[in-house]
Structure formats: C-alpha cells, structure tokens
Write a structure and sequence with these properties.
Distance between the termini of chain A: 59 Å
Number of strands of chain A: 0
Order of helices and strands of chain A: HHHHHH
Distance between the termini of chain B: 45 Å
Helix content of chain B: over 70%
Helix content of chain A: 55-70%
Radius of gyration of chain B: 17 Å
Oligomer: heterodimer
Largest interface: A-B, 35 and 35 residues
Shape of chain A: elongated
Shape of chain B: elongated
Radius of gyration of chain A: 21 Å
Number of helices of chain B: 4
Strand content of chain B: under 5%
Order of helices and strands of chain B: HHHH
Strand content of chain A: under 5%
C-alpha cells in the first residue's frame, strides 16, 4: 500500500462519523458543507451576473424578475444563512488557529479538560451570534 | 514551507471576504431602494471605487473558495500526482473565472 493511503481512509464518510465526535467536529462538518455550497453558489452567481448582464437592460431586468420568485428567495435566504455560519465559524477557527481562543496551558490534572473544552463558551457565543444574525437576515427577507 | 504561505493567504482572504461580502450583502439587501435595478447597477459600474471593490471581492472569493476545495480534495487520500493535477485544474478554473468575471465590470466601466 502506498504511503498516502490510510492517512484519511474514512474519506467523506469520516466527516460525518469516525468515532466519538464532539461539538467542534460537528461544526467542522458544517463548515465544509456550507463552504461547498457557497463555492457552488458563487460560480452560479458569477455566471448569472455576467451572461445576463452583457445583453443589456431588458435581459437583466427579466432575469431579476425571474429570480424574485419565492422559490429562489428561499434559496437565497439559505445561502445567506450558510454565509453567516461559515463567516462566524471561520472567524472562530482563525482566532483559534492563531492561538487566541485556546487559553493558557494547564497541568494535566484529572478530570482532564482540553483547551477546546475550557473555551467552549466562545463556541456557544459564536452559535448565539449566528442564530441572531440569521433571524435578522430572515426579517430582512420577509419585510 | 510554501504551503504555509498559501494557508496564510487563505486566512487573509477569509478576513477580507468577511468585510467585502458583508458590504455587498448589506448594500443589496438592506441598502437604498432599487439597489438591484439596472440603473443602480450601471451607476455603480461607472464608479472606479466599486470596480476595485468587485474585482477585489472576486479575486479573494475565488482564491478562498478554490483553495478550500483543493484542501478537501487533497484530504481524500489522493496520490501526489493526482493532487498536482487537481491543483493545476483548480488554478486554471480560477484564472478563467477571474478573467470572465473581471471582463464584464471593466467593459461596463469603460463604456
């Protein structure tokens, strides 16, 4: 077996389940899922905003009218909600990566709690922020 | 070592997108009435600052999205040779999308 095999043999299944995953691991899966969705949406948005803008005003306005139907509006809200989550969790991951949310090292004394568990409040604050912003965005879409 | 700089750029573009996408969304959804109309779009297209804003948004978005996609592909136990092919394909896709996405705002700005 070549060297690279086995480094991630669970593949995509491992994103969802590979053992006793904790909250942070679930958030990681959602980060991946929203990221993939946003990349797909980004390319669709780019195609729509270039192809349907070049022919001129009538084609552009007709496209905007078509995209204003309720089905697309629901999809648009889901994109905004995914964006809010991806941005907030991404900011948390960035701060964690740079060591800001990990706290000071502590001696390994029973009951053991790792840095992520000790700083769980930041995760909960991020979750709360996402919910508040998603509700605000929903209000913006409905009004 | 080179990979560390690409990762750092991923963090920088992520932070940049936090503000750029935020401005884009707030302007179009909560901004002035008719911000999505042809007239408003043409007005923005004629402004150099908006042109810089959109090209920057597109560049940062493409880098962040495609680098993230590359990371996902490379985590799926692909061989180094396949990994290189994936990287080349994503870079090519990014360059084409950047050229395609920049052409329209530049054309509208110049007209």
């Amino acid at each position: 077996m070549e060297r690279w095999r086995g480094e991630n043999f669970l593949g995509i299944r491992g994103w969802v389940w590979g053992g006793r995953y904790r909250l942070e691991r679930r958030l990681y899966f959602l980060q991946r899922l929203t990221g993939l969705g946003l990349v797909l949406y980004g390319f669709l948005h780019l195609i729509v905003m270039t192809f349907f803008r070049l022919p001129g005003e009538s084609v552009y306005e007709a496209t905007m009218r078509f995209l204003a139907n309720p089905g697309f509006r629901v999809g648009e809200y889901l994109v905004v909600a995914a964006l809010i989550y991806h941005a907030a969790n991404g900011l948390r991951l960035m701060l964690q990566e740079l060591g800001f949310l990990l706290g000071r090292p502590v001696p390994p004394v029973y009951p053991y709690r790792d840095a992520l568990q000790r700083k769980r409040s930041w995760v909960l604050a991020m979750g709360g922020g996402v919910v508040v912003l998603a509700v605000l965005a929903l209000w913006g879409f409905l009004v | 070592m080179k990979e560390v700089y690409f990762w750092l750029l991923q963090l920088v573009t992520g932070l940049l997108l936090f503000f750029l996408v935020g401005i884009h969304l707030i302007w179009l959804h909560f901004g002035p009435e008719g911000a999505r109309s042809w007239g408003s779009m043409i007005e923005r297209a004629g402004n150099g600052l908006w042109l810089v804003f959109y090209v920057l948004l597109l560049t940062a978005g493409l880098y962040h999205g495609l680098y993230g996609l590359r990371n996902i592909f490379l985590e799926l136990s692909v061989s180094p040779a396949t990994g290189r092919r994936i990287t080349i394909a994503l870079v090519a896709l990014g360059v084409v999308a950047l050229a395609f996405g920049t052409y329209v705002p530049v054309k509208l700005f110049a007209s």
